[in-house]
Write a structure and sequence with these properties.
Layout lengths: L1 H6 L4 H19 L6 H20 L3 E6 L4 E4 L1 H7 L20 H13 L4 E9 L5 E13 L3 E10 L1 H36 L3 H15 L5 E8 L2 E8 L3 H7 L1 E3 L3 H9 L3 E3 L10 H6 L3 E9 L2 E10 L7 H101 L3 H26 L8 H15 L7 E7 L6 H22 L6 E10 L2 E8 L16 H12 L3 E5 L4 E8 L1
Parallel strand pairs: 12-13
Antiparallel strand pairs: 1-2, 1-5, 3-4, 4-5, 6-7, 6-11, 7-8, 9-10, 10-11, 13-14, 14-16, 15-16
Length: 585
């Protein structure tokens, strides 16, 4: 078994050589005297290896004598062919080959015997005992065997499956080749149709394309019905005398009129027995033909005739292809009719355009006057608008200044107040005034009065409050994330007051001395509402805190302002305090 495993990796040529060598070695050893134990042992080993390779090989092995008779055949060969070994040994080897291959097999074997030591490869058909035919690939090499003379060792393998696959592949390739040529033909005709709507040009190109693409076609002609005649419109592959005789075909004469009358394709594989073939076709040597109708508007308007000088050459796909070509020609006819209709429509439209142009010239004169009036009015409106914008900016500036004056007055008044509670109220009022003044300042600095940079406004307000409360920004940070949104002036003031109160609360109550933390302000959008969030990571609100019961003026103000925004408040006490205010856009 080890020998078999080693030998299975060798090439067919190597195995044939090794079997050959082993066979000669066995013959040499048999001549050695029987009392020579070393020779006897070598003989046994060589015999075993030779038999192991020969009998257990997964190939059919034959040895053939110079006279063509089988000398040996292995068990696998007998099994594959269905014979017993005694039914093959001593019989001519060509008897198991296909009758049509035997002459060639004999020649190949003779060449093999004439060239000892040279490898020969061939593929032939063999006949099994049950009559089944198989394809085999054989590797043969002749050599001089001791005591047996010239022998040919043949390694034979069944390749029937490969041959069947090869046959199917060739059929597929042929179908693809035909399909490709047919696609090229249809594409060629389609390109002609797109390049020209002239029917005669398309027909001429079509007949030449058909004859150039389908090898079996020797003659192509296209006829159109005109009255009681079928008239030749295009042709390829026919002499002038044939054209003269077949230029006009009278009604009900020949296979062309038969196709037109029935509206169905006609095919003749042998014109010798076809009564519809005319004398001109017989004289030209036509042996088979296909005739396909050309349809337009549910009427038969002509026929494509393709003919060959050989019998029985047209296939079903050839007839189908000519049917497709006929459809393409129908498209050309339709395109021509549409082109004619378009030309008529164009002429009518041209007249209408001229009439309309005169009307437009009159309307343009009136329109020009109207445009000039509107331009003058627009200039006046822009001038007025600029004046109003200047006035509005001045108003914003004065309001801001007035609020600044109020803030300064509150600041001065605070210095004269001895009561700390009253003093704190003045400071709170001052911050609220400042938050409103910042809105007016932001609007005044904006190039467009309706646009407020809300993100910058909140950042400025926060920085102002951090400064007022003397917050160390290295200990407590302000974080803002404001989406770009369009918030009107009135709501900006309300939101500024809310943020003012909530940031102030965080800075006053959330953090103990030197406690690190943050105050965050966010404005997000969600569907049809805005979400304002202020939060800190301070010590949070008292457990018994209730927003609706609070006595804090600032938080009462936050509730009132939120109601004005038609919004809602939600408080989250986890990890500090977070106020979430939702209000509609």
């Amino acid at each position: 078994m080890e020998t078999l495993i080693e030998d299975s990796d060798k090439t067919r040529h190597e195995l044939v050589k090794e079997i050959e060598v082993l066979k000669n070695r066995v013959s040499d050893l048999e001549k050695v005297k029987p009392d020579n134990q070393q020779s006897d042992s070598a003989l046994v080993k060589s015999e075993e290896k030779y038999r192991s390779l020969f009998e257990n090989s997964p190939s059919m092995f034959f040895t053939v004598k110079a006279d063509g008779n089988i000398a040996e055949v292995n068990e696998f060969g007998c099994k594959e062919l269905g014979y017993a070994s005694d039914e093959l040994i001593g019989k001519p080897v060509i008897n198991i080959f296909h009758p049509l291959d035997r002459e060639t097999v004999s020649k190949q074997l003779q060449m093999c015997f004439d060239n000892p030591g040279k490898f020969f490869d061939w593929e032939f058909r063999k006949i099994k005992k049950d009559g089944e035919t198989i394809w085999v690939r054989e590797t043969a090499r002749s050599f001089h065997a001791k005591d047996e003379g010239l022998l040919a060792l043949i390694d034979c393998r069944d390749i029937s499956v490969l041959k069947q696959a090869e046959k199917q592949l060739n059929q597929t390739v042929e179908k693809l080749r035909v399909k490709t040529k047919y696609e090229e033909l249809i594409n060629s005709i389609s390109q002609v149709i797109h390049r020209s709507i002239n029917l005669n040009d398309v027909l001429d190109n079509t007949v030449h394309a058909i004859r150039g693409s389908i090898d079996i076609i020797d003659k192509v002609s296209i006829y159109f019905v005109e009255g009681n005649n079928a008239v030749l419109k295009a042709h390829s592959g026919v002499p002038s005398w044939y054209i003269e005789k077949t230029q006009t075909i009278p009604f009900d004469d020949g296979y062309t009129w038969n196709t037109i009358a029935t509206g169905k394709p006609a095919y003749s594989s042998d014109t010798d027995n076809d009564k519809l073939v005319g004398p001109a076709e017989i004289l030209l040597g036509i042996k088979s033909y296909v005739s396909v109708p050309i349809k337009f508007d549910n009427n038969i308007v002509g026929a494509i005739n393709a003919a060959s000088f050989s019998k029985d050459v047209f296939r079903e796909e050839d007839i189908s292809l000519l049917g497709l070509v006929a459809n393409q020609i129908s498209m050309v006819i339709e395109n021509g009719r549409q082109s004619e209709q378009l030309q008529q429509t164009y002429n009518i439209l041209e007249e209408r355009v001229k009439e309309r142009t005169l009307e437009l010239l009159k309307s343009n004169a009136l329109l020009r006057e109207e445009i000039e009036k509107r331009i003058r009015a627009e200039v006046e409106i822009k001038k007025s608008l600029q004046e109003k914008e200047i006035l509005l900016k001045e108003v914003q500036h004065r309001v801001k200044n007035n609020l600044q004056v109020i803030s300064s007055m509150l600041d001065l008044q605070t210095d004269y107040v001895k009561d700390s509670g009253v003093s704190e109220m003045f400071i709170e009022a001052q911050k609220r005034v400042k938050s409103m003044a910042l809105v007016h300042e932001q609007m005044y600095q904006s190039e467009i009065l309706t646009d407020l940079d809300f993100s910058q406004y909140i950042e400025n307000l926060g920085n102002y409050l951090f400064t007022i409360y003397g917050v160390n920004t290295k200990v407590i940070t302000l974080e803002t994330k404001i989406e770009e949104v369009n918030i009107d002036f009135n709501r900006a003031i309300l939101l500024g007051l809310i943020v003012n109160e909530l940031i102030s609360n965080s800075l006053k109550y959330a953090f103990s001395e030197d406690q690190k933390g943050y105050v965050r302000v966010r404005l997000d959008t969600e569907d049809d509402c805005y979400i304002l969030t202020t939060s800190d990571n301070g010590k949070g609100l008292p457990k018994n805190f209730r927003l609706r019961q609070t006595k804090s003026l600032g938080l009462q103000l936050v509730q009132a302002l939120t109601n004005q925004l038609k919004g809602s408040i939600k408080i989250d006490r986890r990890k500090g305090t977070k106020f979430t205010i939702r209000f509609p856009k």
